[in-house]
Amino acid sequence: MIEATKVFKKGSSFPIEAGVVPKWIEGASWSDHSSFWKFGYPGIMVTDTGGFRSPYHTTKEDTMEKLDFDAISRIVIGMYTCAIHLASIQR
Question: CA–CA distance from 46 to each of 27, 31, 53, 60, 75 (Å)?
Fold first, then answer.
């Protein structure tokens, strides 16, 4: 997680915070990564904390005009940089 965060920061100017959250914390298993955990694969959850941040999250009112495409593009670049780096690590 620390390495993924450092690499993300090298590829993007978007602010990032990282932490380890126990499975029992609300929201910790809301992403696809928990499916990987069930089968013993490591998984990282990347979230904008939408469920806590926006009252529109996953509702009809969660529409395109409410999206910040500049922020999304910076996140995509950081995630791309991180994915390429993590995929290149010899395990």
Answer: 12, 8, 14, 23, 10
Does residue 53 sit in helix, strand or coil? helix
Q: How far is CA 23 from the centre of its chain?
A: 16
H or E stretch at 36: helix 33-38
Q: Which domain holds residue 54?
A: 2-15+22-88
pLDDT digits (tens, 9 = 90+) for 44-80: 777 776 667 778 888 999 899 988 899 889 999 999 9
Domain count within the chain: 1
Identify the CA nearest to 5 among candidates 37, 20, 16, 30: 16
pTM of the model: 0.72
